[in-house]
Amino acid sequence: MTNKIKTAFYVQRRIALILFCVAMTSTFFSCDSHPHFKNSGEAIKACHDALEEYRDTKDASTKTLAGDISSWLELQDSAYATFSRDSSVTLHSPIALAYFSTADSVRIELKRIATSRPRSLKDVMYLKLYTAKERDKVRKSKTWEATVNFYKELDKRNCLPSLPATLRAYETLFERTKEFKKGQQLRDYIAAEDLCFRSLMKYLSAVPQKRLKELTAKTSNVFDKFYGVVGKTHSDFDDQTMLLLTMRFNRRIIQNAEACRDDIKNNSDLDEAQRANYRWMLIQPYMTLDSFSTATLTDEQIESLLKIADELPSLLTSLDESEEKNKQAQEVTKVLADYFLNSYISTTL
């Protein structure tokens, strides 16, 4: 992918997620799993008690840390809900100032615990996967279950028999695809596209880079038209359609990373440009999955992401032929783990 195409793709996807989140707020956020407080003072005390607990913690396993972060995020949500019902709470009120001060201190303590020991990329991914705030709510929805089943049905279809057949199917799909005016038209397109994409991943190492860029650009063009329609009116696009887009994105970048891993393990012949693209495609899931996307992942996808994260150092090393580059690849993996950990903390807490 070129940077321009990548940027356009992520912008389009964010528009879809914003529309989806607006539409689904009442559905996903009606759960009663968070702690409840009678008043703002009680909420502040609970936050302060949590802070004291974290201050007493010198170190924690990744699993324990994930539990601590999840508990704090739930506590935050409950505190916000309590403050919203209290008319005396304003931005500069004593309650608000006390909360902000405590929350900042909690953030510092959780960051200290997170960095108290070296964390691998797999550790960071575990934190990201198991602290997504919306995860339990999303999984309890019938919309998520229906979308999972939709994609499971697609997995039952055999891939196309060859790369030429796959490329022909892609071109036919692009030629026949018009503007989406109903949610079912998008579902039909995704079903056809999914077969093409899964087949393409099977022959990924044999696809010329120029051809990959063309397919990416044409796919982007299809969704340019779709998002243009949604931007004007999304009355014909239901909640499942929006979730469908999020899970399509997850599915594609994970399948892409899996294909890269398999090609590397099978010693597929890769030129320099392919090696560079494979590095990006292996790292892509860890850079681009936001909290909501993470919340919609299936157990199988979570397992796959953790496995690839664990294998990433050796996979990146295999892509570099010289000993010096192997050392650089290992250093890059460590830098990535540190970067993603700090990025995760700054955007989550």
Fold and architecture overview:
With about 350 residues, the protein is mainly alpha-helical. It has 2 domains: about 5-30 and about 140-295, no CATH class; about 30-140 and about 300-349, no CATH class. The chain has 15 helices and no strands. The chain has helices spanning about 5-30, 40-55, 60-85, 95-115, 120-130, 135-140, 140-155, 165-175, 185-200, 210-230, 240-265, 270-290, 290-295, 300-320, 325-349. The model is unreliable at about 1-30 (pLDDT under 50).
Topology:
Blueprint: H1 3-28, H2 40-55, H3 62-84, H4 94-114, H5 121-130, H6 135-139, H7 142-155, H8 163-176, H9 183-202, H10 209-232, H11 239-265, H12 272-288, H13 291-295, H14 299-319, H15 323-348
Quick recap:
With 349 residues, the chain is mainly alpha-helical. It is 77% helix and 0% strand.
Strand content: under 5%
Low-confidence stretches: 1-32
Order of helices and strands: HHHHHHHHHHHHHHH
Question: How many angstroms separate the termini?
Answer: 31 Å
Helix content: over 70%
Question: Structural class per helix/strand content?
Answer: mainly alpha
The tally of strands reads: 0
* Cα Rg: 22 Å
Rounded mean pLDDT is 87
Domain tally:
2
| Biggest pleated sheet | none
Q: What's the quaternary structure here?
A: single chain
Number of helices: 15
Shape: globular
Which key phrases capture this entry?
349 residues, 15 helices, 77% helix, mainly alpha, 2 domains, globular
